[in-house]
Structures are given as structure tokens and as C-alpha cells.
Amino acid sequence: MPPLAVSGGDPSGVGPEIAITAWKLRKTADVPAFFLIADPDLIAARAKSLGETIPLKVCDPDEAAALFPDFLPVVPLKNSQTDSPGVPLAENAAGTVEAIQRAVGYAFDGKAAAVVTCPIAKKPLYEAGFAHPGHTEFLAELAEAHTKKVCKPVMMLAGPQLRAVPVTIHIPLAEVPKALTSEEILAVSRITARELKEKFGIARPRLALSGLNPHAGEGGALGKEDDAIIRPAVEVLAAEGIAVRGPLPADTMFHAPARATYDAAICMYHDQALIPAKALAFDETVNVTLGLPFIRTSPDHGTAFDIAGKGVARPDSLIAALRLARKLADNTRK
Ligand SMILES: NC(=O)C1=CN([C@@H]2O[C@H](COP(=O)(O)OP(=O)(O)OC[C@H]3O[C@@H](n4cnc5c(N)ncnc54)[C@H](O)[C@@H]3O)[C@@H](O)[C@H]2O)C=CC1
Ligand SMILES: NCC(=O)COP(=O)(O)O
Predict the structure, then answer these.
(1) Tally of domains within the chain
(2) Quick one: which of 103, 131, 238, 320 has the most CB atoms within 10 Å?
(3) Do 10 and 133 fall into the same domain?
(4) Ligand 2 pocket mutation pick from 136, 138, 267, 271 by most atoms within 8 angstroms of CB
(5) pTM of the model
């Protein structure tokens, strides 16, 4: 089985240092073999500025697994990058995007078992002309270019106590009600149920769909979408044989006894899913993209510019992302 491909993310964020730390912890934290797609000079500079002496080896993906026990394998970018911890630079955007594209290419070529992405900051990439809301949508576009098939990506935050899936993702809150349709809820729920079975090995996945409004609309008194849009989707899913409940009031579906009744919460908007996921387990939760023809995981956190280069960034969520990517890749191969 090939190693995992890790894209370096925004190099001004914590991506380089959490990748370095994850490699340093490879033995004690049981970190699966990976190669980092990055500018080797920048990685060496960041390690040095953090007081680390890292044996780094520039290599091809094919050489990475053998090198990993003794060296941090770095597959070099064509676009060089400037080390500027905490201050994102537009000039680094090309390399950041190249790393993601290369990781996906290696997954399609069979040189990587899965893609693991370090965080990108959206704004500097948008300013450099990046036209996708985030990795999730960009990865789907890359998948479509490789397969010539339509690809519907679904974001899942997977932690030890909760899996949460937002139906709408990176759109302004004011646009959520009109973006929310029964068709969209059905598509996201079906992909989630299928992949919980195929990739996570859950024989009969149970879904819990949240409402949109307080108290799931309180019978229409506090909003109409719950009964008009979400409930019909729940009925269709149930008729298809999916174990599903909802719309559930979102304020009471995340305490421990409620979480024990489902395998994934399907939530109506970004923060409805990501707030409970990150509040319960910020350091252990992983962002997984479902619906792609390859495995992709990522830490749940962002670029953390406020702490980049200070040597305090925790590698835990990246390590969880690496472990989950390995597990899902192994499950899919069986
Ligand atoms: N997968 C990705 O590419 C993601 C990217 N982002 C992007 O990251 C940028 C910054 O987003 P924020 O909302 O500030 O969230 P953030 O996750 O970068 O930071 C939030 C807080 O958590 C802390 N933190 C984050 N990661 C940490 C770590 N590994 N160790 C210790 N503390 C950590 C930060 O210092 C900060 O105080 C945005 O541009 C956003 O779009 C956000 C989430 C995921
Ligand atoms: N809030 C989650 C996030 O921003 C990660 O998005 P993506 O870059 O993985 O699409």
C-alpha cells in the first residue's frame, strides 16, 4: 500500500510545523507513512527557526515509504515559496494550489493511498485568483477533471464522539434558507449513508437530520423550512431503507445520550455541524471529504496564523487525519 500524500497548505500557517512534528512523532504516535508536498527549503527553514534538526530528504513519491522511518520525505514543489510565518503572502498561492493538485494526481496514479491536506486560508487564495470556496469544492473539481464524471463532495467532521455533516458549506448564513432544498439534503444524506457503510464499515448507518430553525420550527410557528423541506427529505430517505430521524431540534441533538442514537448528524449549515464537532474534540476531530473517488482528510483547524512559527501548534488533529486516511484507505481496499 503506498504512503499518504500530504499537501503543505498555506506555508504561512501552521501546516509546515505540524507536518514536521507529526513526522517526529511517527514512532510514538503510530503515524502512518506519508510524504509532504512542499518547498524543501521552506520546510528546512521553518524547522531551523523552531530549533529542530530534521533529516529531510527530497524524493519522488515512490521512494517515500522506504525513507519515512529515517527521513521526512519531501516531494518538491515546482513553485518555490517564501517562509513568512503568520503573514500570508499572495506570491505563495501558486505553490499552495500546486501541492493540492499534485497530491490528487498521486492518488489517481496509485502513488498515494490517500490525500491529507494541511490548512489553507481562503482569503489570500481568493486574492490570487483561486475560484473555489475551499479544498472540498476544489478537490471535487480536480476529481471531475480526472474522471470526467460529476462529483458531489460532502464535508464530514469526524471525531471520537460525533460525526457531523453540513448540507450547506461555505456560504453566508443569510443565503442558507434559499440554498437548502430537499434534493440537496437527500444527496448529502445518501452519500453519507453509503460511505459510512463502505468506508467506515458501519453496516447500518443511522442518520439524524437537524432542523434549521429553533425547535425544528415548532410546528411552523418558528419557521417553515423544517416541515416544508427537511421532513419530506427524511420521509424519502426512510422509504429508501435508510435509518433516519428528523428534523430534530438542533439544540438538543448533541448531548451524549442523543449522540448515542446516531452515527452521523446531518446539519443544515456550516456552524451547526462544526461548532459541536470542534467544541467536543478540537484536537482529535478530522475533516473528511466524502463523495470523492479518493480518500481525503484534513485537520479540523485552520491555518492558525496567530501561532504559526512559534512552536506551539498541536499536531494532534493532523495525526488523527493521517490515521483516519490510512484506515479509510485500508477499509476501501478490502
Ligand atoms: N482545512 C482547512 O484548510 C481549513 C482552513 N481554515 C482557514 O484557516 C484560516 C484561519 O481560520 P480560524 O477561524 O482563525 O481558525 P483556526 O483553526 O486557524 O484558529 C482558531 C484558533 O485555534 C487555534 N489553533 C488552530 N490550530 C491549532 C493547533 N494545531 N494547535 C494549537 N492551536 C490551534 C488558533 O491559534 C486560534 O486561536 C481561515 O482563513 C480559514 O478559512 C479553517 C478551517 C479549516
Ligand atoms: N470550516 C472548514 C473549512 O474551512 C475546511 O474547508 P476545506 O478547505 O476543507 O473545504
Answers:
(1) 2
(2) 103
(3) yes
(4) 136
(5) 0.97
